[in-house]
Amino acid sequence: MGKQVTRRTPEERKAQAEALHASIADQVQQLTDSDQWRKFLDFTRSFHTYSLNNLLLILSQRPDASAVAGFRQWQAKGRQVRRGEKAIKIFGYSTKKITEEDPETGDEVEKRLTRFPVLSVFDIDQTDPIDGAEILNPVAQLTGTDDHGVLVPLTAHLEAIGWTVTTEHLNGPNGYADPERNTVVLHDELAPEQAAKTLIHEAAHITLGHVDDADEYRAHRGRMETEAESVAYVVAGMLGFDTSAYSIGYIAGWADGNADVVRATAARVLAAAHTIADVFTPDEIQEAA
After folding, report:
1. Helix (H, G, I), strand (E, B) or coil at 74
2. Concatenated DSSP letters for 107-142?
3. 246 CB contacts (<8 Å, ≥6 apart)?
4. Cβ neighbours of residue 240 closer than 8 Å, sequence gap 6 or more
5. What is the DSSP letter of 89?
6. Using one digit for the tens of pLDDT, what is the confidence trace for 216-245?
7. Domain residue ranges of the chain, discontinuous segments joined by +
8. Which of 69, 139, 169, 170 is found 20 to 30 A from 288 (Cα to Cα)?
9. At residue 284, does pLDDT exceed 60?
10. How far apart are CA 45 and CA 10, in angstroms?
C-alpha cells in the first residue's frame, strides 16, 4: 500500500509543527547527555589552538576549514588524509639552544634561537575514517534517493522572490545562500534527500532575514544556524521525512549543547516553518495511514 493522504486543518498543521519543534530540544538533550557527544567534544577539543596569523593563513587557503591537524596527527585520531589532497601551509614554532663564545669575554654563552618552519596541515574534510576506527561525528549526511517533492516547488518559490538556485562542487559545505548574487548554491554531489533538507535550510536563512546583514550573522551565527536547521527539521517532518540523523547533531553543535537555546527560538522558527510549508500544496503536507 502507498501513502494515503490525510488533509490537515490549519490547526492540525500548527500543532504538528509545534510538536516537531518541541521534539528538537528533547533530542538535543538526549544527544548531549550521551557518551557519543562527550567523546565528540573530547575529539574536537584535542585540536591545536592556532595563532591569529595561522588562522588567517588557514582561512585564506581553505575558507570552509573546521578542524585542522597534521598528517600523522590525523592518523592518531583514526583518520587518513586522502591521496592527492592539497596541504594547508602554516608556520610552526620551535626553539633551539646553542652555545656561543662571547667575543668580549671569551666565555661560553647559551642562546636560544627561534624558528618558524613551514608546516603542512589538512582539514577534516580532506580525510576519511581509517577502517575500524570509531566515527565520532554526530552529524550524518542523509542518503535517501527521494527529495520528497521539495526541490521543484521550493526552487520555484525562491525564484519568485528574486533568488536563483544552482549547484556547484563545494569543498565542505552542503550549500549556502549568497546575498550578493541572490543565489542559493547546493553541493552537486548531495543525495536528493540531503539536497532537499539543505534547500529548506537555506530558504529558512532567507525567510528569517539572516542574509540581510553579514556582520549581524557573524555576531550571532550560532543562533541563526540553530534557527535555520530547526526550520529544516520541522518542515521536513511536515512533509513526511525525518532529518534527525543530520539535524539534531548540527543543531546541538551550533546551540553549544544547550536545549534552552533551541526552545528560545520557537516563535521565529515556527513562523518561518509555516511560511515555507505554505509553498507546498495541501496534498504534500501529509501523513502515512
Report:
1. helix
2. -EEEEEEEE--EEEEEEGGGEEEPTTPPP--S----
3. 139, 140, 141, 142, 194, 197
4. 3, 148, 286, 287, 288
5. E
6. 998 999 999 999 999 999 999 999 999 999
7. 10-39+139-277, 46-136
8. 139
9. no
10. 45
